[in-house]
Structures are given as structure tokens and as C-alpha cells.
Amino acid sequence: MLCQFSFQNFKSYKGETTLDFQAATLPEFKETLITEEKAMYLLPISVIYGPNGGGKSNLLQALSCVISTIVKPVHELEKNRQNLILQQKVDALPFLFDQTSANEPSEFRIFFRIAKNEYCYYIAIKSDEILSESLYRKSITGKKSATIFERETADITLGPSISKKNINTSVNPKMPYLSFLAINYDIPVINEVMTWFESCIIRSYANPMIEHQIMLAKDVPYKKQFIRALNDMDIDITDYRYDEDSHQLFMKRTLGSTEYELPFSDESDGTKLKEDEVNAKYVTTDKNTGMPALQYTEDELNRITAIGTDVYSYVEAMYAHWVVDGGVEDEWDSYIEQLNAMGLEEMVSLQQGAYAAYLESME
User: Fold this and answer.
1) Contact between 282 and 226 (Cβ < 8 Å)
2) What are φ and ψ of residue 31, in 5° steps?
3) Taking a C-beta distance cutoff of 8 angstroms, is the pair 61, 11 a contact?
């Protein structure tokens, strides 16, 4: 189970930030905690809240970055210990609104428990290369940690528990040493740690679902309205531009006297949702550029979001299951029945109704 996760210099986070599941000593809530004799009590759940663009989704992406960095190379070589839902690879992007931090590594440290042991894994990444990495283990009732391995750039030191196994310490700078060990050796402590990482699933339900392509007008009046509306929602962009060569939309911000640009794809999920809403209100087009921005009532939008969250999660889970285990032909009918039971037909009906209303308004 996850005990504590800290990171720094990742996307919108410059300084160190910690997500801590260690419980405060409040006796009236003891029965709700995860308890272990002589060990720190843990919270079974944690809630993160804040404004759009406040960093909630980036915190989840930081955790996903660690997990996908470790698990992906193992999965690609079919060396994973168990069936898993492969997470989307998240790159370690530093805090870009500062010239110093932009050239520093992103750092991640994660504490987690497996049975009677607590592990601490640390990794520092810069431009996809591993600059530092370590793994330690201690008893959950103990105070002294044992080194499994330590790595500083190309120098790797093995701890006593694995140093006698004739293990290679030469590894590609872009490969986590934990992943390297999991791929090439059958070491109980590494197997235990990799199984834990493979069991982790990071899900963000904040992705825009109604309009995946944002259409921005070049007309100055529309542009000013669009930016002003976002500023009113505490999204602090000052301008935007579309780069024809890279086919990317860039959002501009000014900090002090310096102007910075960030690709729209790297904006937080909450910011994308708000820009999506403003886009539907202020941006018009006289050409058929794809699916239009449909208008929904608040109840319809809430219903579509609720159904879509369950449907998309189930679709991804079944896709991963079929890729790993097969059986799509035998399970297809029950799969469709389950989607309809989740409300797929209702969601499609709401979308079709909104599209029909759009076509009627265009007549």
C-alpha cells in the first residue's frame, strides 16, 4: 500500500510536494485506519481538492510518471509478473517557468508497504535519462533501512541482499535499474517490488469528453473575449498561438517580465475542461471543421460525464484483458450487454439529441 509520495520539479510543481497517507493521532477515528502493530497507521483514502489549474491532475501524473517509467520497459519485453492494465507513459517534464529548474532533473520518492516490509524508492530523471536511483527496505517496526541498490549516473552499488548474485551493473542510462533487474534476474525482493508497481492503476476522470479538439478563432474580438473569460476563472494565460509547423497550440503566460509558452497538451485536465467550455461559448466557425461544440443542459452534461466515466473505464479494462488473455469473440455479447447496462445507449441518445438541436439551429 502507498504510504507517502513526494516529488519536485515536475510540470507545474517547482518545490517539493508530498502526498502523505500517514494518519494523525486522532483516537476517535482509529477504527477507520489501516493499522499494524508498532507501525505508523495509514489512511485508507485521501482527497485532493483545489481550483482549476491548481495542480491536482499533475500530482496524479507525477505518480503515473514513476509507475509507467518502471513498468513500461518490463511490459514491453513481456517480463511482467502479473497481468496488468498498462498506464499511459508520462514523461518527466520539469517546471518550465524558471530557467534554473528547466535544466534540473525531476525527482520522485515513494514509500510503500508490502506485508511486513516498507520500501523507499527514489528516482531522478532529466531528458529521459536516470541521474540517480535507489531502493531501500526496512521492517515496518524497525528503524534501520537496508540498501537494495544505489545508483548515481553510471555508478551502481548493490546492497548485501543482492550483491552475491553476479549481477550486471552496466545499464542503459535511460533504463531504470529496478526495471533492468526485473527483466534480467529472478530476485525475490525485486519480484516483490515489481509486482507492487504493476498492481498500481492511476486513473484521471477529468479529461474533456464532449469536445476533444478545441477550435480557437484568430479574430481579435473573439480572442480577447476568450482570454478574458479564462482569466475570470483564474486561468492566467495572456495569449495563445497555433504553430503550423508542429501543429500544436501554445498557451502564453507572463511571469515577472518573462513570457513563457506551454503546449496545450501539457495543461492540466481542469484547465482543458474550462478552455473547452469557453471555446463552446465564444468561438464560432463558418466551416465544417469536424464535430461541433454541442450544447447540453447542466443535467445532461452531468449525466453524460457520469456514464462516460464508467463506460470508458470498463472499455479500457476489457481492452487490456483481451490483449493479455484473449477471449474477445466469446465475451463480446456480454461486453455489449454490460455497456448498455452502464447507460451507453442513454449517453448516445443524449449526444444525438444535442446534435439534432445543433443541426436545427443551423437551418
Assistant:
1) yes
2) -70, -15
3) yes
Smallest Cα–Cα separation from 230: which of 212, 216, 244? 216
Half-sphere exposure of 41 (CA within 13 A, CB side): 13
Distance CA 28, CA 237 (A): 45
Residue 93 burial (CB count, 10 A) = 19
CA angle 273, 275, 281 (to 5 degrees): 110
CB 271 within 8 A of CB 52: yes
Helical axes 269-282 vs 56-76, angle rounded to 10°: 120
Query: Which residues are within 8 A (CB) of 218 and not within 5 positions of it... i.e. 6 or more apart?
Result: none
Q: Which long-range contacts (CB under 8 A, 24 or more apart) does 319-325 make?
A: 320/84, 320/85, 320/86, 321/83, 324/83, 324/84, 325/83
Question: How far from 141 is each of 13, 36, 145, CA to CA, in Å?
Answer: 33, 9, 11
Q: For residue 19, list its beta bridge partners.
A: 5
pLDDT at 131 over 50: yes
End-to-end CA distance of the chain: 57
Averaged pLDDT for residues 303-332: 83
Q: In the 8-state DSSP scheme, what is residue 285?
A: -
pLDDT tens, residue by residue, 98-111: 888 989 999 999 99
